[in-house]
Amino acid sequence: MAMLQLIGQAILYIASHKFLLLVSCFAVIGWRKLNTMKGPHEQFMQEASIYLRYVSWWVGLGIASSIGLGSGLHTFVLYLGPHIAMFTLKATLCGRVDLKTAAYDTAIFGKGPTWEFKNCLDFGDPLYPRVISSGRYNVPLLDILQEVHWEAVLWGAGTALGELPPYFVSRAARLSGDSLRKVEDLGTQDDPEIPRGTISGLVNKLKLWTLLHFRQFNFWTILIFASVPNPLFDLAGMMCGQLNVKFWKFFVPTLIGKAIIKTHIQTLFVIALCNNQLIEQLELILSELFKNIPFISRLLNGVLLHLQNAKQNYDSGPSTKEAATWKFSPALIWNLFVWIMLLCFICSIINATAQRYLLEIQTKKLERLRKKE
After folding, report:
1. Would the pLDDT of 256 be above 90?
2. Cβ–Cβ contacts within 10 Å for residue 42, how many?
3. C-alpha dihedral sign at 191, 192, 196, 199
4. Whole-angstrom distance, CA of residue 219 vs CA of residue 210
5. Domain of life of the organism in this record (predicted)?
6. Above pLDDT 90, what percent of the chain?
7. Local structure of residue 198 (DSSP, 8 states)
8. Which is higher by pLDDT, 174 or 257?
9. What is the mean pLDDT of residues 72-96?
10. Residue 326, pLDDT score
11. Spatial distance between the Cα atoms of 96 and 82, rounded to a whole number of angstroms
12. CA dist., res. 2 & res. 17, Å (int)
């Protein structure tokens, strides 16, 4: 019922704005006509369609990551991070970064990239010097970044778009004369249901501290909040709406921070972690630092051994014989985990939408009862 209401409101809004209605109809009819007509433009339309899917996939993953006041799907860990790691390992294994057939040669809507299981000989001779100790190639970090940064930027733009609902909800509440309940709750005493000392309790204290110390949000404050991974930005968005901060003053620093600064920090971290030469240097540094501490030294050796085994397994490539006989694989477990996460995320959206719709109905009923009294 809530979805029908939202669809009806969207249709009424478009119908009430004639220019928007004409542009929407013209765009849909024109796109459909160009796709069905034959001619020299067919290749361009196919390319444009693939680019559209590419952009919508990574932007959609970014929105799914940040929407829902911190309860979104962690798509960086599930999708973008593994994609960057795989590309880095492949580039250092083959000694080249020109692995993609096009910018959109990534995992899109369940379809994997073409370069993932190709042999290094298919790409040509290596273009970078080989490191004898590791058997891999010394590929500069920035060269790898140039090949994967568009996916990161699109994902970051999606996370910025996902921060808009809390801002608009809070601003609408402010303009209507109400105050947002989530912001009000932070100003009250500690929730008795959340034990002190727990992670939830600490996060609530951090949010309350933020609420007290950052009453005046300017461009640089929002930019700093958006540029680092933190669980408090949903509160920053709500506070900007509650304080009636202008939309562009909120969205521009959010977009710069999330799509440019934060995503590049995360991408560089993943590349550095998966770059074999940097890992070897890190192993040497950590081994020297903790060699005299028995417990940490043993734990560190175990972690480094697992990393080396993972790299060797990736270098050896997939085994067709094992793939034919061994069906219950780690990949199957991972895919099952991702699907469970997606279902939980969809269920949370359905529950939140239904609860909001029910609250609206109950509020209207209470208003009618008060008028009768």
Report:
1. yes
2. 12
3. negative
4. 16
5. Eukaryota
6. 9
7. S
8. 257
9. 84
10. 43
11. 19
12. 23
What are the CA-CA distances from residue 187 to residues 32, 165, 182, 191, 213 (Å)? 53, 22, 9, 11, 12
C-beta neighbour count of 152 within 10 angstroms: 27
For the CA atoms of 278, 282, 288, 290, the dihedral, rounded to the nearest 10 degrees, stands at -170
Q: Calculate the alpha carbon distances from 83 to 46, 152, 274 in Å.
A: 24, 10, 11
Q: Are 64 and 162 in contact (CB under 8 A)?
A: yes
Find which of 16-20, 258-262, 286-290 is predicted with most confidence, using mean pLDDT: 258-262
> For residues 312-341, b (16+ Cβ closer than 10 Å) or e, as one string?
eeeeeeeeeeeeeeeeeeeeeeeeeeeeee
Measured from the Cβ of residue 159, the count of other Cβ atoms closer than 10 Å reads: 28
pLDDT in tens, 335-359: 677 677 767 767 777 777 788 788 8
Which tokens hold the place of 338? 């991702």
Find the distance separating the first CA and the last CA of the chain, reported in whole Å.
Answer: 29
Q: Is residue 54 a contact partner of residue 158, using CB atoms and an 8 Å limit?
A: no
Closest residue by Cα to residue 206 from 247, 172, 235: 235
User: DSSP state, 111?
Assistant: B
Helices assigned H by DSSP within the chain: 2-16, 18-36, 42-66, 75, 81-94, 141-162, 164-175, 181-187, 199-213, 219-227, 233-242, 247-256, 263-274, 276-290, 294-316, 320-325, 330-372
